[in-house]
Design goal:
mainly beta; four-stranded antiparallel β-sheet; about 50% strand
Length: about 120
């Protein structure tokens, strides 16, 4: 049984930083590209960042480029999202997921095994 668990969310002031972590079990993370998405109240879930199986390639939404960094540790079966220069508009529930299907990295229907999410709240 595949399980994905996110952690590291919290309340932070604008301009601050947070590091989210995603731990997967029941599969070998190194065999899959992984992604982070977020969903704010009343909005659709949107792409944030993705990383290839090897970690050599990374992809970011324009809104977070230069502020967020996705990384992976295949030995630990984890994927992290370092978030810096946070803005109030980054407030959302952040989800980690496994990319099962080929296609664009920013398409959520290419991903499965979604975690329960972790809340990030950025105060102004």
């Amino acid at each position: 049984q595949v399980q994905v668990v996110e952690s590291g969310g919290g309340l932070v002031q604008a301009g601050g930083s947070l590091r989210l972590s995603c731990a997967a079990s029941g599969l070998t993370v190194s065999s899959y590209a992984m992604g982070w998405f977020r969903q704010a109240p009343g909005k659709e879930r949107e792409f944030v960042a993705a990383i290839s199986r090897s970690g050599d390639s990374t992809y970011y939404a324009d809104s977070v480029k230069g502020r967020f960094t996705i990384s992976r540790d295949n030995a630990k079966n984890t994927v992290d999202l370092q978030m810096s220069s946070l803005k109030p508009e980054d407030t959302a529930v952040y989800y980690c997921a496994v990319r099962l299907y080929a296609g664009n990295y920013n398409e959520k229907n290419r991903f499965a095994y979604w975690g329960q999410g972790t809340q990030v709240t950025v105060s102004s």
